Amino acid sequence: MNINYKNTTIKTRPSVYEPSEDSFLLVESALSEIKGCEKILEVGCGSGIVSAVIKANTKASIVGIDINPHAAKCTKENGIEVIRGDLLSCIKGKFDMILFNPPYLPTTEEERMEGWLNVALDGGHDGRRIIYRFLEDAGDHLAKSGRIVMLLSSLTGIEEVKSKIGSLGYNVEDKREERLMFEQLIVIVAKKE
Ligand SMILES: C[S@@+](CC[C@H](N)C(=O)[O-])C[C@H]1O[C@@H](n2cnc3c(N)ncnc32)[C@H](O)[C@@H]1O
């Protein structure tokens, strides 16, 4: 399937997260946060939609990383430099901005599905397993004045995640939000002053 959005056309693939409201809320937040030629990393880039829209509409340089090989291939086909890897484990260097639309659904053993789409959605029993792993390491990859721009959902516990981010020494601001039928989405910006 082709998706057209803001001067960008991307192709999606089976076994790769299909861009949804969360993807577009993150990209709109990132576009309003980027200043000039910044160096950006998108963790969990999926189809590459967020990175591709940023590349087409800003002067920033952007690289994606995803653990799903189909997502890495899809992002590459959509014109974005990409690495296949687990969160930040194989990332070297520092970035002005790290973006993440994480797998955030609280998921029990019984709810877990086979295949790569589960990896796009499954946030562990409380929805925060991947988010917390990411947050523990993100600071090592932020340049001076660097910030994390991350999507959160009411299904995951927005206050719990904000409190974790605060405990790691960041200031957190709400950037944008959107109410859907069964959840509230919010994008936060976290930075250390
Ligand atoms: C909700 S999807 C978001 C995809 C895309 N950024 C978007 O907004 O449409 C989450 C993405 O995170 C990736 N992911 C999950 N766990 C990961 C990990 N440990 N390391 C890297 N990527 C991961 C998934 O494969 C999936 O592509």
TrEMBL record:
<dbReference type="InterPro" id="IPR052190">
    <property type="entry name" value="Euk-Arch_PrmC-MTase"/>
</dbReference>
<keyword id="KW-0949">S-adenosyl-L-methionine</keyword>
<dbReference type="GO" id="GO:0008276">
    <property type="term" value="F:protein methyltransferase activity"/>
</dbReference>
<dbReference type="Pfam" id="PF05175">
    <property type="entry name" value="MTS"/>
</dbReference>
<protein>
    <submittedName>
        <fullName>HemK-related putative methylase</fullName>
    </submittedName>
</protein>
<dbReference type="GO" id="GO:0008757">
    <property type="term" value="F:S-adenosylmethionine-dependent methyltransferase activity"/>
</dbReference>
<keyword id="KW-0808">Transferase</keyword>
<dbReference type="GO" id="GO:0003676">
    <property type="term" value="F:nucleic acid binding"/>
</dbReference>
<dbReference type="InterPro" id="IPR004557">
    <property type="entry name" value="PrmC-related"/>
</dbReference>
<keyword id="KW-0489">Methyltransferase</keyword>
<dbReference type="InterPro" id="IPR029063">
    <property type="entry name" value="SAM-dependent_MTases_sf"/>
</dbReference>
<dbReference type="InterPro" id="IPR002052">
    <property type="entry name" value="DNA_methylase_N6_adenine_CS"/>
</dbReference>
<dbReference type="GO" id="GO:0032259">
    <property type="term" value="P:methylation"/>
</dbReference>
<feature type="domain" description="Methyltransferase small">
    <location>
        <begin position="23"/>
        <end position="106"/>
    </location>
</feature>
<dbReference type="InterPro" id="IPR007848">
    <property type="entry name" value="Small_mtfrase_dom"/>
</dbReference>
<comment type="similarity">
    <text>Belongs to the eukaryotic/archaeal PrmC-related family.</text>
</comment>
<dbReference type="GO" id="GO:0035657">
    <property type="term" value="C:eRF1 methyltransferase complex"/>
</dbReference>
